[in-house]
UniProtKB/TrEMBL annotation:
Molecular-function GO term, any one: GTPase activator activity
Matches recorded under PROSITE patterns: TBC_RABGAP
Name of this chain's protein: Rab-GAP TBC domain-containing protein
Superkingdom of origin: Eukaryota
UniProt xrefs under PANTHER family: TBC1 DOMAIN FAMILY MEMBER GTPASE-ACTIVATING PROTEIN (PTHR22957)
One Pfam assignment: RabGAP-TBC
Record-annotated Rab-GAP TBC domain positions: 32-310
Provenance organism: Zygotorulaspora mrakii (Zygosaccharomyces mrakii)
Amino acid sequence: MDLRQVAVDQYESRESLIRRGVWKGDLYKTVDVNKGSRGWLWKTLVLDDDQEVKELMPVPILTEGSEDPTSAIVQSANRPRDNLIRRLTPVATKAHPLSQKQIGDMRDKGELEGQKVVEGDEDDEDGMSVSEKLEIIDLDLSRLMLDKIFQEPLVHARMKQIMYNFLMRKGASSPSSYKQGYHEILGIIFLQLDEARRNNEGGNNDNSNNNNDDDDGDAVMMNQVLCIFEKIMKQMVGVFYNETRLIKWDSDVFQPILNNSCPELYKLIYSNQHHHTNIIWLIRWTRLLFIRELPRDYTLIIWDHILTFTYPLDTLIACIIVTLLVNNYQNLMEKIEDHNDIVEFMLHYSLNSSSMIDCVELCKMSGNLCELWYLQDFTAMKLVADSFLKIRFNVENKTTPKAVKIDPNRKRLEDRLRKRVKQTLLTKETK
């Protein structure tokens, strides 16, 4: 069934589509959003109806000795991509960013304290020239293996133009910093919207057709990709793509949520004084939003929920990771002996995971944890995880005193949460 028709028939507003269609999961029972419909869904969730289409700045070809993009020539889409990188590591680091000394120095300077993140105020001075940034973007895009379309010269050029415009978003004469991972996030968004555009054109993939209608359609699609990319990166760059902020997020958000939800897993993962090595896997999990860890269709449903922006991204990502850990409670408790095992397990999560919770239910449980975290209801957070473990793995909560008299209101809350988790698991088993 056509997604648009379903949306018109069943959801009276975008808020209803978000609440009932995505978070309640009704949408996934009605249509297969993986068949060319996800691009339309993401545009509906993220873009305003009156979204202004602006012409993207062309990617410059800098003349020798010039670093001024405003005086450059427009890059041809079919320009040969030979000798793209002259210097792969133009900036040398002075110290390992995750070393104990480096973390201690940052604490001494107050860099790990709670200062407000201002969009674009960090990492701009990365020491790279415009041409070096464009060369690195070229190299990353040429190695993008998400889909074969990224090897097409025209698609490569479009991706590069979108990325260049994103880096120039502040209107300065020099782009802000670029980090590896940006191109994979952009690639996923481009892939969904480009597939929707091609389906609307009747599956015509002929890139040689350059009439005005096609050009206008491409321009609109590229603007939409850029807008979605900007909105999702606005919440990611200041936290997950900055090493100092990522360490602070780990200590202030992820660890407390994990500890309050499942103390046993927290002790297992953060029991050693060298637990900052967890940043090694958290970097990839957070920066790539599970692209490498989970099956593509599964990950895209998580992205559907992320793009509703119902919860702050940093908190939602923490709760999703906690839920995935709880879902693999037995594996972790049985296989992990030291921090090397943790890193190995988490960097090969798809191979080590024995089973996967239904993705919509994963997001529901993560959303519940988000709400309880903001309410500071730590007892209920633990109850959610305990109920899940009891029903799924028959794991009893060893920390709850058995002789304590439970308040009737809390008893009703427990029963309601247990019933919800049980229905979730039964629904998954019958599929």
